[in-house]
Structure formats: structure tokens, C-alpha cells
Amino acid sequence: MSEASIGHQQNPGRYEIRLKGHLDSRWAAWFDGLSLTNDSDGTTVIHGPVVDQAALHGLLKKLRDTGLPLVSVTQVESMTTTERNTT
């Protein structure tokens, strides 16, 4: 069985998770390594690398415990080395 078929990744995926409502900045420590932004549209965006699917499910469980409704979970493209160096 190949690594791809059992869900292992060489590099972490990057995700953007949106919640309806705002989380106070004190919650940022609970989501270590992920950025937490309150948008003007009344949502909170949690963004950053997630190591694998098991970690993503653990993160979703934490999000459920906040009591805020989940709006979306989106895997986003990581910036390439070239893009990082030009920004």
C-alpha cells in the first residue's frame, strides 16, 4: 500500500477554517501554530498548517467545543519558495 493511499503526507496541508462569530484573542494559544483573525463579516478565520487528517479531525473537535457554528473548511495552496521570496 502506498503512502498516498493510506493518507500520509510529506508536507502539512494548509487550511482555512471559518466559524460564525468571533473568538477572543485568548483562544489563539488553544490553536497553537495557527493564526486567528476576526473578520468584519462576523466570522473568525483560523489559518495555518495541519500535519495530517488525524490532526485536522482533532482540530475540528476543538472547534466544536468552542460552540461557534462551523461555516467552512478549505484546504488552501501553500506558497512555493519562489512566491515567498518575492513577497
Structural notes for this entry:
By secondary structure, this protein is of the alpha+beta class. The chain has a single domain, classed as Alpha-Beta Plaits (2-Layer Sandwich), CATH 3.30.70. The protein contains two helices and four strands; from the N terminus they run βββαβα. The chain has a four-stranded antiparallel beta sheet, covered by helices on one side. The protein starts with 12 loop residues before the first strand and ends with a helix.
Question: What topology does this entry show?
Answer:
Layout (H helix, E strand, L loop, with lengths): L12 E8 L14 E4 L4 E8 L2 H14 L3 E7 L4 H6 L1
Antiparallel strand pairs: 1-3, 1-4, 2-3
Please summarize the sheet with the most strands.
Answer: 4 strands, antiparallel
Counted beta strands: 4
Rg of Cα set: 14 Å
Task: Report the structural category.
Answer: alpha+beta
Overall outline = globular
Average pLDDT, to the nearest integer?
82
- Lateral arrangement of strands in the main beta sheet: 2-3-1-4
Order of helices and strands: EEEHEH
CATH domain class = Alpha Beta
Distance between the termini: 39 Å
CATH-derived architecture: 2-Layer Sandwich
Q: What is the count of structural domains?
A: 1
Proportion of β residues? 25-35%
How helical, in percent, are the residues? 10-25%
